[in-house]
Every structure is written in C-alpha cells, then in structure tokens.
Design a protein that fits this description.
single chain, alpha/beta, 2 domains, two-stranded antiparallel sheet, 12 helices, 16% strand
Length: 283
C-alpha cells in the first residue's frame, strides 16, 4: 500500500501542489521538478509503476508552479524541497532526481546545497538561466518565453515592450531603470519584475554542479531545442564524461512525444537504485 497525497503544507502555512506517493517498502525515492512556470502534472509520470519498483515518488511543484501557493524564489524552493524530503524520506533511502529544463538546474543546486542523490536524470536541462534567454533572443524564439509570462498578466503589451530586447538582462540597466518596480505593478497573478530578478539577475549557473555530479548524471535530449543551445549541453557532458542521449521520440524542448521513453529510463534507474540498496544491505 502507498501513502498518497496531492498537497503538502509548509511550516509557514503555504500549500504546495505536490504529489507524494510513498510505498510501505520504499527503498529509493524519485524526486521530480518541472520547467519554469510548468507543472509536474503535465509529464504524467507512471506512479504505480514507480511504486511497484519499490520507489517512492515526490512530484514537486515549487511555489508559484501548478496550483502551489506563493511566488517562485529559488532559495525558498530549495529549502521547501529539503523540508519535504526530510519529512518523508529517511536519510538512508537513495534519491533519484529528475528535472526538466530549469527544474534540472534547481535540482543540481539542491544536490550541492542539501542532500546528494544517487542519480540525476536531466531532461532538456537549462544549465544557465541567463544563457537560455540570450540564446532565445539571438535565435528569435524569445516569444515562447514571453508567451508564458503573458499568461500571468492582464497587461501583456507593456510587459512585451519592456522585454522586447535583451537590454533588461544587463544588471546595471535593470537597476538604473527600476525595471523590477515597473513590472511588479502590472496587473498580474505574480510580481513579474521580482520573478525575473530572482531567476535572471544575476541568474543561476549550474555548470560547476553539473561537473561535480557528472559521474551520476544522465542527460536526455531532443534533437531540436529552442530554449537552450544543445551544443552547450553536449560540450559540457563530453567534457565532464556525463552520459547523454538523444530520444528520437522527443520533438522539442518540452519533450512532446518523448515522456514515455523518459519515464522508462527513469524506472530503470529506480530499479537499479533499489537493487543497489538491497545489495549494500546484505551482510
């Protein structure tokens, strides 16, 4: 039997839209984190199959993601996840961490700051938040990012005009023009200026953590990615000898058509972690 809940209440009373599926015989635990502005529900993870492998599951929507309350701040997201894992996963149970896009970046920071997992599976990872946006401006795909932001505000025209070029990414320009305050007062479901400052000024670079964890990391890529330069990810993987593979089923950065294959790869990793834990427990 598994313990299943779809809401976690934090110490400060905020409620997170986070699924916990913990079997009685939990011998490993999968932790999944979504892309920026996304929700773990969109990935449709096969909970029963994961639990049948003896693996618990924490599908984590940070503050401001899915139906989670609050606003996204990376440091808060890391601390919240540590609180959840500490409450529900004993220290001797290995973690398998699966992060998509910016979620991969966040989990690498978590592993460096809090609890080291036994395995990372990074799906179309964004390893440097600022590099992602500069790449999108250069390649003409920044509209995909702005479309997500526009879904949070009733004044998308003003937001789009302010962010039309990459000038705002210069920290001095951002501060001198008071761009956080200008964007924060737009009628929105979140403070857009604070959100952008938290994630992109000065930004989150996970290169060093990727290098540190490369021996336990697998990277899953699509052949086309409009959010982050594939050549950067491949170069870093080759430099640090991390495993990487292209999943031909995945059609884009959001891994459309590729999640069944990604979850099968993840379930195989869960089974390996369970078997390794059983072998280590033998006298």
């Amino acid at each position: 039997m598994s313990t299943l809940t779809d809401t976690v209440t934090l110490k400060d009373g905020l409620r997170l839209d986070t699924i916990l599926s913990i079997p009685d015989n939990q011998r490993a635990c999968l932790v999944a984190a979504p892309c920026m502005g996304g929700s773990v529900h969109m990935y449709r993870p096969p909970l029963e199959r994961i639990n049948e492998a003896g693996c618990g599951c924490i599908l984590y929507n940070p503050r401001g993601h899915g139906a989670s309350e609050g606003e996204m701040v990376i440091d808060d997201a890391l601390g919240d996840l540590d609180d959840i894992i500490t409450r529900f996963v004993p220290a001797d149970v290995p973690l398998i961490m699966v992060g998509h896009s910016a979620g991969a970046n966040m989990l690498l920071h978590f592993g460096a700051r809090y609890r080291r997992p036994s395995r990372f599976i990074l799906v179309a990872p964004v390893l440097n938040s600022r590099e992602s946006l500069f790449y999108m401006y250069r390649s003409g795909t920044i509209g995909e990012f702005l479309d997500i932001l526009a879904s949070y505000t009733d004044d998308s025209d003003t937001m789009r005009s302010i962010l039309a070029t990459d000038a705002w990414l210069d920290p001095e320009t951002w501060r001198k023009r008071g761009m956080r305050a200008i964007l924060d007062v737009l009628p929105s479901r979140m403070r857009i200026g604070s959100f952008l400052e938290n994630l992109f000024i000065p930004g989150y670079n996970a290169y060093d953590h990727f290098a540190e964890f490369s021996p336990i990391t697998s990277v899953l890529l699509s052949r086309a990615d409009t959010w982050y330069p594939l050549e950067t990810t491949v170069r870093l993987a080759e430099t640090h000898h991390a495993k990487f593979m292209y999943l031909e089923e995945a059609r884009n950065h959001f891994f459309a058509g590729g999640w069944n294959a990604a979850w099968q790869h993840t379930i195989d990793a869960c089974r390996t972690a369970v078997c390794d834990g059983a072998a280590a427990a033998q006298p």
